[in-house]
């Protein structure tokens, strides 16, 4: 029922047990998502606790994802301010939390943003900070993220998109020395 306003407020046991927390999205920055933690509410006790709770935002990073610039734009387009998100704690590094971020898409469907970004080709799979390499959870998550990245690669999406044969020929011709010289001559 406690409200966490800093990554250091979260008990080590929560991180070790990979607890899921709920929060309200405030900002999307280069460093990650700034989320206000929303604690479990118990009707009478929560109203009393609100008076003493301090305000602060948690910095949540998408674990296992190295975002491309287009990924940041996609996040800003898909996520709305004050939107509710769930984040599963995987690790803590200084003042940032490494998490799997889940967004509800309808009543029974939720989407893992980490996987969706990779599936859209808007980032690359990276090392999951905070989890030990020998843990089963690390390999399970890493495999899921690699599968999502492979889907984007197979479908030529996002950063994996390859130019068609005609586009490559066109670029090759327009960048050739002969065509460049003709363009300069024509501009005189």
UniProtKB/TrEMBL annotation:
Keyword RNA-binding: no
Membrane disposition: Single-pass membrane protein
Name assigned to this protein: CC033 protein
Subcellular location as annotated: Membrane
Key words of the record: Acetylation, Membrane, Transmembrane, Transmembrane helix
Residues spanning the membrane: none
Source organism of the structure: Sagittarius serpentarius
Coiled coil, from the record: none
Cellular compartments per GO CC: extracellular space; membrane
Presence of the UniProt keyword Membrane in the record: yes
């Amino acid at each position: 029922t406690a409200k966490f306003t800093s990554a250091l407020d979260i008990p080590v046991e929560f991180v070790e047990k990979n607890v899921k927390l709920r929060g309200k999205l405030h900002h999307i920055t280069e460093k990650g998502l700034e989320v206000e933690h929303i604690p479990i509410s118990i009707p009478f006790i929560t109203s009393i606790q609100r008076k003493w709770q301090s305000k602060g935002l948690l910095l949540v990073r998408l674990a296992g994802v190295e975002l491309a610039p287009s990924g940041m734009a996609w996040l800003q387009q898909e996520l709305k301010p004050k939107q509710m998100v769930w984040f599963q704690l995987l690790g803590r590094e200084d003042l940032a939390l490494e998490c799997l971020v889940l967004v509800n898409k309808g009543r029974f469907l939720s989407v893992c943003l980490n996987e969706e970004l990779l599936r859209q080709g808007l980032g690359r799979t990276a090392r999951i900070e905070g989890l030990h390499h020998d843990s089963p959870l690390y390999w399970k998550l890493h495999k899921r993220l690699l599968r999502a990245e492979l889907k984007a690669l197979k479908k030529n999406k996002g950063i994996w998109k390859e130019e068609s044969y005609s586009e490559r020929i066109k670029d090759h011709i327009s960048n050739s020395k002969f065509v460049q010289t003709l363009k300069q001559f024509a501009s005189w």
